[in-house]
Amino acid sequence: MQLVDMFFDEIEDAKKRKVPFIIPIGTIEYHAHHASCGCDTMVINGVMRELEKTKEIVVCPPIWYGVASYAVGGPETGTIQVDVDVYEQYIYCILRSMLYGGNKNIYCVAHHQTEEAGLMPMTIACHKAAKKLIMEYMEDTRGRGWWGSNEYSNYYKNLGSGDDPFSYIKVIPLISANAQHECGGFDHAGKFETSLLYALYPNHVDLVRTKDNTEWFAESAKEASMELGQHMVRCTLEALQETII
Hints:
Layout: H1 8-16, E1 21-25, H2 39-51, E2 58-59, H3 84-100, E3 106-110, H4 121-142, E4 169-173, H5 177-183, H6 191-200, H7 226-243
Parallel strand pairs: 1-2, 1-3, 3-4
Helix pairs in contact: 2-6, 3-4, 5-7, 6-7
């Protein structure tokens, strides 16, 4: 289900049943000459489109602009960079509306600088926004000392479950570390990311243009294939089936 297509009663029902609400966390960033600048966000959208076929989820509008950084190229390449502190506050505001609206099963799914599922500025911003919000929400709704109260004597027993307040909002990479290994690798605008985008949105990849690439990171893009991309989609979906609950 796409959030923008849902009616109020449908949204309320999904929240009550704790259906996972997914926020795609991407960027607008230079992906060499052969791949579209929306690649990071689009691959999340595409995978969620496939995940919807087998799992009940609510896909929220994606966050297109992100903490891209100018590590790959400056603004002249089309990369749009949002300052990390501004971004954290923006994500915080979105999550605050959702949490106070009764949504307690939110996933921020990121695809940018997530090699080996490591933490980088954009994902750190999402984690900080989520944890800050949860602490404020629990104090606001349960009062100071909420964690130390006997009401939370089962806190450690419930860790990671739906009764754990720190599980109300989770920040995960689109492709987990294990899934990256199953896929065979991970890169930026190389054969792996290009193949993934190609399998999900073939019209947003033009392999003929790989001849115009001069940067090291895009050299392997000419090896991209639909078969590799479909394999990566399968590996990613298998991991997400277990992670998103």
